[in-house]
Amino acid sequence: MVSNPKTFLTPEEYLAIERQAEVKSEYWNGEMFAMVGASRKHNLIAGNTFGLLWQQLKRTSCEPYTNDMRVRIPATGLYTYPDVTVACGEPRFEDQQVDTLLNPLLIVEVLSASTQTYDRGQKFSNYRTIESLAEYLLISQNEYRIEQSVKQADGRWLLTDISTLEGIVELASIPCQLALREVYDKVSL
């Protein structure tokens, strides 16, 4: 039996394929990984979060993006699609296509059973190498819970857990707050 050897792609090859693809894929260590579709709860939570941030960031120098904005992590070479991303000041992009953000300030991921270990572990490890990143939010689909990690002046990350529907997350990196009641609007748990 003959096995097919893996084909490793350069970042440039990945981007050329990805920009023509009908389905989004992440890229890491020379390989593309197709992203699966999201659940109704996932879409509601991500949409609510984006909407809340968009409303509060109007008339500021910050821009919130949905999961169609790719983020590149230069130190590790990961290309990924966070659920919500915010850049403040002048956003920096990888090239003239303006579809790959390099300087996110805030990244939000909505957890699922299949991604929560990766989002908390290896993915967060990759994200922490982004110089501009100041805050990382993980939002649960299975309980009312937001995990807020904020980069401290000494480079360490401080984790705060907000796990009541009456809770409010005061964002440290941007002048916004997220009320869990609004993040979970129309979501049945």
Layout of secondary structure:
Layout: H1 11-18, E1 25-28, E2 31-34, H2 40-57, E3 62-65, E4 70-73, E5 78-80, E6 84-88, E7 100-101, E8 106-110, H3 116-120, H4 122-127, E9 135-139, E10 146-151, E11 157-162, E12 168-170, E13 177-179, H5 180-183
Parallel strand pairs: 4-7, 8-9
Antiparallel strand pairs: 1-2, 3-6, 4-5, 6-8, 9-10, 10-11, 12-13
Compose a concise summary of this entry.
The chain is built from five helices and 13 strands. The chain has 189 residues and is α+β, with helices and mostly antiparallel strands.
How would you characterize this protein structure?
The structure is a single chain. By secondary structure, the chain is of the alpha+beta class. The protein has a single domain (39-183), classed as tt1808, chain A, CATH 3.90.1570. 22% of the residues lie in helices and 29% in strands. The chain has helices spanning 11-18, 40-57, 116-120, 122-127, 180-183; strands at 25-28, 31-34, 62-65, 70-73, 78-80, 84-88, 100-101, 106-110, 135-139, 146-151, 157-162, 168-170, 177-179. Strand 4 and strand 5 (78-80) form a beta hairpin. The N and C termini lie far apart (48 Å).
